[in-house]
Amino acid sequence: MTKNLSSKLSILAVMAIVSIQSIAIAAPEPTETETAQPTIASLDAALKQNPQDIDAHLQRGILHAKLQQNIPAILDYTEVIRLDPSHALAYTNRAAAKLNMRDYRGAYLDYTQVIRLLPEKAITYNNRAVARHQLGDCKGAIADLRISAELFRLQGDTSSYERALNNLKVFQRKR
Question: pLDDT tens for residues 40-99?
Fold first, then answer.
């Protein structure tokens, strides 16, 4: 009797796997929103358990940003910064979200903080130049692009160096 029951359960398990595989093949690919939401929900649960979890706040902020949810992303990055004031990635990501929201002053301030923490990070000068340009600070934007280009050159990043030089030419013409 046990052997017969065991055999029936095995057959049912195989049928369930085949059914699930059929459904998976027929189901459309989940959208970015659908795949990100369970992760956000699991991070929400993790943060209920440990509100001081810097990585969970950072990851949730990144997911919100991917979904173009800038305000929740900024809130998570701000919490990371509150918990670790030297967290350069949180400042960088918050600045990018602020740029998306056209908060150029806020982006400028955050990129300035990243430069204080990581002065060799060439892309940060490039990004701060965008914020400065939008604020009407063309001289500051040009200065940042010059630094960015030089750092890219010194780091051997030829394509980024050339892009920075092209941006510099564009900004100089707009002056």
Answer: 999 999 999 999 999 999 999 999 999 999 999 999 999 999 999 999 999 999 999 999
Query: 139 burial class (0-12, 13-18, 19+ CB within 10 angstroms)?
Result: exposed
How far is 86 from 114, CA to CA, in rounded Å? 9
Which single residue is written with the structure tokens 């795949």?
A: 35
Residue carrying structure tokens 């979200």: 97
Residue 43's alpha-carbon distances to 14, 23, 47, 53, 85, in angstroms, are 33, 28, 6, 10, 21
Distances (CA, A) of 6 to 18, 84, 166: 18, 55, 70
For 134-152, what is the mean pLDDT?
96
In 3-state terms, what secondary structure has residue 118?
Answer: coil
- Asked if 133 and 171 touch (Cβ cutoff 8 Å), the reply is yes
